[in-house]
């Protein structure tokens, strides 16, 4: 009998990226022996449904290559999808509802945005007490160049009525049993922003299946959940879409909540833009180093704001010094940073990084607990031993 590993290895990455002839099988989450073709180096957080985390050591380039880019699925990916048959419908509060084929979509002028995409649940594993959900550590984040028509160009063809205040996206996910479908909406102001896309390309290649082939929404600077994959329907609504993934999903308490406390829906707000945050990509946590001279490196991002400063501490947060920000930058993209440091002696050290953004936000020293474990941006730290 063919093993699961062999079977998966037999399904080439190219097959998975292009046609949908071979749906990815799903296996129990406790089987950690498998790797996913094309994503071999990622950490499998769940097979059902596929959730893959990037090891933080890979955050050493401005653009994250697609094979290192995290994957977050709430349900099964579409098992069959023929690009020749695919259609995108645009309707709701518009004057002229219409549908687009992929060929028609590709004729609309393309725009590119380098965007840091982060899952709202990134860092959830560090909440105490634990909260339910995928236990992401640091790597449910990545940066890519997304390209495709502006969503506003697609909407303009339909003519949005003055009553149109929100824009809803529906994906082609296969919804198992009674699970509510992954449908969410964004306000019309964000939908018509020049940097909100119907993206067909990622890092100059056609979107891979895991990232929403043939088209996904790209809502720059916002939590990943806003950027619906495998788009099939865009609908203009009078009010925010009502559904599980808008409420209670992806909402934060207006006031800090205590574990065990019940927060009323009216005391919550939707999670939209990303927080200010930085990660240390090198050295790795628990590294044993033979040299006292170190190049401490990492990334820092702030959603719709700009990173203005990254500070590094080599004494567990007692004193801080400015790191150097690398030249590569774009409005919604992370900055690489580095800090050259000489250990004063051999021994154990706690290295920490703290980012500040153009809105004056800075990272807290501990996670801000909330019932769903969203937007954890507490200061990152690694423990190292200099031999
Ligand atoms: N779109 C659909 N249709 N279904 C999903 O499960 N997951 C969302 C978003 N878009 C999701 C989706 C979430 S929670 C995140 S963080 C991003 O996709 C992840 O994008 P990626 O898998 O391309 O990294």
Total number of beta strands: 25
Structural class: mainly beta
Low-confidence stretches: 1-31
Count of DSSP H/I helices: 5
Name the CATH architecture of the largest domain: Alpha-Beta Complex
CATH top level of the largest domain is Alpha Beta
Write down the CATH topology of the largest domain.
Answer: Sulfite Oxidase, Chain A, domain 2
- The amount of beta strand, in percent, is 25-35%
Query: What can be said about the biggest beta sheet?
Result: 5 strands, mixed
Helix content: under 10%
Strand order within the widest beta sheet: 5-4-14-8-9
CATH superfamily of the largest domain: Oxidoreductase, molybdopterin-binding domain
In N-to-C order, the SSE pattern is HHEEEEEHEEHEEHEEEEEEEEEEEEEEEE
Ligand inventory = ligand MTE
Report on the architecture of this protein.
- With 387 residues, the protein is mainly beta.
- The protein folds into two domains: 184 residues, Oxidoreductase, molybdopterin-binding domain (Sulfite Oxidase, Chain A, domain 2, Alpha-Beta Complex), CATH 3.90.420; 110 residues, Immunoglobulin-like.
- It is globular.
- The N terminus is likely disordered.
- Ligand MTE binds next to strand 3.
């Amino acid at each position: 009998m063919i093993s699961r590993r062999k079977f998966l290895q037999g399904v080439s990455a190219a097959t998975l990226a292009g046609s949908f002839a071979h749906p990815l099988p799903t296996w129990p989450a406790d089987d950690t022996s498998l790797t996913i073709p094309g994503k071999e180096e990622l950490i499998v957080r769940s097979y059902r449904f596929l959730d893959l985390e990037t090891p933080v050591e890979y955050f050493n380039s401005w653009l994250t290559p697609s094979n290192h880019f995290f994957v977050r699925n709430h349900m099964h990916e579409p098992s069959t999808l023929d690009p020749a048959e695919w259609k995108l419908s645009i309707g709701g509060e518009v004057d002229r509802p219409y549908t687009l084929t992929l060929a028609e979509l590709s004729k609309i002028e393309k725009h590119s945005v380098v965007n840091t995409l982060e899952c709202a649940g990134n860092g959830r594993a560090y909440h105490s007490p634990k909260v339910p959900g995928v236990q992401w550590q640091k790597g449910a984040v990545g940066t890519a160049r997304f390209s495709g028509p502006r969503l506003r160009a697609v909407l303009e063809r339909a003519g949005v009525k003055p009553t149109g205040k929100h824009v809803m996206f529906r994906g082609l996910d296969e919804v198992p049993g009674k699970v509510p479908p992954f449908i969410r909406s964004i306000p019309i102001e964000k939908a018509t922003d020049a940097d909100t896309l119907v993206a067909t390309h990622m890092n100059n290649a056609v979107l891979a299946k895991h990232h929403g082939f043939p088209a996904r929404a790209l809502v720059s600077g916002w939590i990943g959940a806003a950027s619906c994959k495998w788009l099939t329907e865009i609908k203009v609504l009078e009010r925010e879409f009502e559904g599980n993934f808008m409420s209670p999903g992806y909402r934060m308490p207006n006031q800090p909540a205590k574990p065990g406390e019940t927060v009323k829906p009216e005391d919550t707000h939707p999670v939209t833009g990303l927080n200010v945050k930085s990660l240390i990509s090198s050295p790795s946590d628990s590294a044993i180093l033979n040299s006292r001279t170190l190049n401490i490196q990492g990334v820092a991002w702030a959603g719709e704001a700009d990173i203005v400063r990254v500070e590094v501490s080599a004494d567990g947060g007692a004193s801080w010094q400015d790191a150097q920000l690398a030249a590569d930058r774009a409005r919604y993209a992370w900055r690489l940073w580095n800090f050259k440091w000489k250990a004063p002696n051999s021994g154990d050290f706690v290295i920490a990084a703290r980012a500040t953004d153009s809105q004056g936000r800075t990272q807290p020293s501990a996670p801000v607990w909330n019932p769903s474990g969203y937007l954890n941006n507490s200061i990152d730290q690694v423990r190292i031993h200099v031999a």
